[in-house]
TrEMBL record:
Photolyase/cryptochrome alpha/beta domain: residues covered: 8-149
Family matches, as PROSITE patterns: PHR_CRY_ALPHA_BETA
Site (Electron transfer via tryptophanyl radical): W332, W386, W409
Family the UniProt entry places it in: Belongs to the DNA photolyase class-1 family.
UniProt name for this protein: Photolyase/cryptochrome alpha/beta domain-containing protein
Organism: Urochloa decumbens
Amino acid sequence: MEAATAATAAMVWFRKGLRVHDNPALDAARRCGAGRLYPVFVLDPRYLRPDPAAASPGSARAGVARVRFLLESLGDLDARLRRLGSRLLLLRARDDVADAVCAALKDWNIGKLCFESDTEPYALARDKKVTDFAMASGIEVFTPVSHTLFDPAEIINKNGGRPPLTYQSFIAIAGEPPEPVMEEYSELPPVGDTGEYELLPVPTVEELGYGDLSQEEIPPFRGGETEALRRMKESLQDKEWVAKFEKPKGDPSAFLKPATTVLSPYLKFGCLSSRYFYHCIQDVYRSVRNYTKPPVSLTGQLLWRDFFYTVSFGTPNFDQMKGNKICKQIPWSENEELFVAWRDGRTGYPWIDAIMIQLRKWGWMHHLARHSVACFLTRGDLFIHWEKGRDVFERLLIDSDWSINNGNWLWLSCSSFFYQNLLPYYIWEEI
């Protein structure tokens, strides 16, 4: 198999995992002996197609702040690959991303396909289609787990085939995460012939067709691996702050300098490896005398992230109330007028409205602010279905993450996990 692979080309398919450091898929493609390497990202119309009917600029599934963060991350990834003698091959799918990948696998005579595994339902269906095609075509496929600290399937298997439903039981099973793959290398195999394929430059948000954005505020958080590593280094330099980090403490109204690391969007897009971040925090802990422990510590937040990934992966219909066996069936109100007032920051409650306006403009807010508006919408004041609020967060947050967003709305609405918790302050991955 080694000789056969060495005679062909390899593809590394980026989706999340938009980084060079600790990227086992990229590392495997680099090492397989192929003479040519095709680093590919496919623009997905499902997420990027403009929607004039949306409540704010962007697509039906992504606000302009998150789209901008993605494009910045792609531009940074391309720049980092170019420094290694490669480049990002940016393709646009007409409709289905899987079809675009399968066509490229065939046309470029790929012998090995490497991509980071993904546990979201949409991704599982997309990836199965590509994997089935690749296997039927005699293409070797390698899909390492590297978006999370642990493999959710392994955790579920260790727990008797069921996901652990409490943080404590998850911690007891998980143990220590694997070490990151941090080998330094100075070059990648050259890119192969792409034939007649149209290779796109990274577009701007305006070029995607979202209309006039001149009045839209540009968020202060720039996407990409370079910024992720800089922000992480800056945060961890203050060892005392790291050692004393404790949720729920922190100022949710801090504006110019947020009270947290704001690394969650970089983890969401995989610009920063969660394993690398975890082990860098451990290095800080080893250099101080005392430090906070999970669940309130900085590493505790990364473990919360994995907890929700595991539960969501092992729970059918995790993203809805009906058919979700861990979700309470609650007769939520259907007052559309109150929901729109909440969404648009027009409730008349200054704190709630300010948070929702910040969400729309920046795509981010402090975790306690998220708690405030989520509780206000659901069990606290308006008694409106958590799925409605989830959809708003999923579209607008730059760190919107399917597993964590659904898990937190289930928790904050007292629909699952801990029904009588008045302040579930450990959660919501806004690290």
